[in-house]
Amino acid sequence: GDIANYDVGITISATIVPDPEAPTTGTIIYNESTEGNDGTYDYRWVMGEEGSYDICSQTMTLSTTIQYIDIFGPDPTAWVDWYTSTITASISVEGGVGPAVPNGTVVENISAAPGDEVSLVGTVNDLQGLTSISVVNSDLGLNEVINLSGELSYELNQTFTIPGDTSEGDYSIETTATNVEGLSTTFVTNLLVSNSAGCSDDVAIFANQTLDANVFFSETDGSFDPYEFSATVATVLNGDALTITGDFMDFFEMDLTLTMVPDANDSSFGEALFDIEDLGEADDGLTYRLVQVEPGSYNACERTISVVLDIEYEDGGTWVFYYRGEAEFSLP
Can you give the pLDDT at residue 96? Predict the structure, then answer.
């Protein structure tokens, strides 16, 4: 093009050399251009000195000297310098204007037991170039740094061992990727540590079983004091509906049907739900029902189902609170 204010159809093939310490910048080099002719003289460009580029500021600088063959000079085959141009041009790059933060994906959920070896995997990308990736959780003794040299993409696969004395619970592992511009992105992985991690049981383990029921009657209408109660119950599983039968509320035998909803990532645990369970009329002539206070849960590996439920009775068309049971059903 006419970048040196004299367009005679000349083009150059340049080589872009990224700076290893900052790949968004670097040098531009070339040897000789193609030759052009204005009808009298042949012309070409030669590099005056190394050029440079900066992706984030979207500029490049190039120094080029225009030469011609003076066919009327003492050597009609020799190239003669005419003038040197320092060219500053705007450039466009994929990814928008200015520097951007790293992006990618890192595994979001991991389940493991104390002493297990686990892998933190993912892919991290950056248009400017990555300088480091850190993996941190102080409770697990994790403080690892991967030093990089401007890679545009990195496949993360960090393996570590969960300390054997780690308590059960949820732990957040922060993976922070930093680029050459000093911009960073933090990916959070939830690590569930459980002694039963790796168990493959699901809700089917509760089918057609006799369970122990341990119930704490934590709130009442004042007609009696809170107390603890134990019983045994029988179960029937039909699809995702688990029916529990027995006198687990220390009142009379009743049925409670729970809808078992597995966790999206691990079917060994999930929610145990119901809305209202009508119990019908009791010997005292009143009609009773069970109402779920909050979503219940199940854990097949720990072999437990937990629900909190109120028992209410109808009085003149109004449902009246009687007492609350915090129940845990477990396989012996």
Answer: 47
